[in-house]
């Protein structure tokens, strides 16, 4: 299936006595924006870590671009981008130095100075990362994930801490990159973001798949009026929130 860029089958991950992911299956089509949703502790980050093989899983299989990490780690890493948490950056380094360092890891990269400008960080090249605001660091973390012109990018809570205008700027940039062929796998707690960006959504709870579909399809199936209500319905908390 050539149009499937990421395929996860029967993924199970245990942490000692906690079963964080149970028999999870998903697939992401090339060129789509796929959202993995779920409450805190549902297993979203663990799923990404297992897909990337930064964590070992107990059962199941993962294929990225038809390859698996055990056999083809180098080839896969050239083709994917991963957003690091904004607190990952070393403090005593300038934005431009960080970009240069990351770009030097790859043979092919974007024109990072131009893309940095599109992210509203063009005037920060000579600034220490420690002096960036929280939102600027967050944007930098999304930017860095795109520096190697990936075919598939993993963005974990991509706009946490961004102001409303900056969030919309990042959404617009990602939508434009999608038009150029980028596939995006994201997690988010913001349903407006999911509605604005995602072609397909998987809701998980307690490490298990609850429902998969388009945002509109999920709303329709739930009988609710919007994605936030549908999400709460599917994770079983609609009654708790009704009284607010
Ligand atoms: N290293 C670990 N050791 C033990 N348990 C862990 C570890 N990492 C995660 N867990 C547990 O696994 C479950 C899934 O955690 P995970 O971080 O994947 O959730 P999440 O959906 O990304 O949550 P959030 O939305 O809060 O970021 C949680 O119960 C968490 O406490």
Topology summary:
Blueprint: E1 4-15, E2 18-29, E3 33-37, H1 44-51, E4 59-64, H2 69-79, E5 80-82, H3 95-103, H4 112-118, H5 134-145, E6 152-156, H6 164-179, E7 183-187, H7 191-197, E8 200-205, E9 208-213, H8 215-222, H9 227-234, H10 238-242
The structure holds adenosine-5'-triphosphate (ATP).
Protein name: ABC transporter ATP-binding protein
Keywords: ATP-binding, Nucleotide-binding
Organism: Vallitalea maricola
Structure characterization notes:
The chain has 244 residues and is α/β, with parallel strands linked by helices. The protein has one domain: P-loop containing nucleotide triphosphate hydrolases (Rossmann fold), CATH 3.40.50. It has helices at 44-51, 69-79, 95-103, 112-118, 134-145, 164-179, 191-197, 215-222, 227-234, 238-242, and strands at 4-15, 18-29, 33-37, 59-64, 80-82, 152-156, 183-187, 200-205, 208-213. Strands 5-6-7-3-8-9 form a 6-stranded mixed beta sheet, sandwiched between helices. Helix 8 packs across helix 9 (227-234). The longest helix has 16 residues, at 164-179. Bound molecules: adenosine-5'-triphosphate. Adenosine-5'-triphosphate is lined by residues 15, 18, 20, 38, 40-46. Keywords: ATP-binding, Nucleotide-binding.
């Amino acid at each position: 299936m050539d149009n499937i860029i990421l395929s996860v089958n029967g993924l199970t991950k245990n942490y000692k006595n906690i079963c964080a992911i149970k028999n999870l299956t998903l697939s992401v089509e090339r060129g789509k924006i796929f959202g993995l949703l779920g409450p805190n502790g549902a297993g979203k980050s663990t799923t990404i870590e297992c897909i990337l093989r930064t964590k070992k899983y107990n059962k199941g299989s993962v294929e990225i671009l038809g390859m698996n990490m055990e056999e083809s780690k180098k080839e896969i890493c050239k083709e994917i981008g991963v957003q690091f948490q904004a607190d990952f950056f070393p403090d005593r380094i300038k934005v431009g130095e960080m970009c240069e360092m990351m770009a030097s890891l790859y043979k092919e990269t974007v024109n990072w100075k131009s893309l940095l400008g599109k992210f509203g960080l063009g005037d920060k090249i000579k600034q220490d990362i420690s002096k960036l605001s929280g939102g600027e660091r967050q944007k930098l973390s999304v930017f860095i994930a795109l520096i190697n012109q990936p075919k598939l990018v993993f963005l974990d809570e991509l706009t946490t801490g961004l102001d409303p205008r900056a969030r919309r700027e990042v959404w617009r940039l990602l939508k434009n990159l999608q038009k150029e062929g980028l596939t995006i796998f994201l997690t988010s707690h913001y349903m407006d973001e999911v509605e604005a960006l995602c072609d397909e959504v998987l809701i998980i709870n307690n490490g298990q798949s609850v429902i998969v579909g388009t945002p509109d399809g999920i709303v329709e199936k739930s009988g609710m009026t919007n994605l936030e209500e549908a999400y709460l319905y599917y994770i079983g908390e609609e009654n708790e929130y009704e009284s607010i």
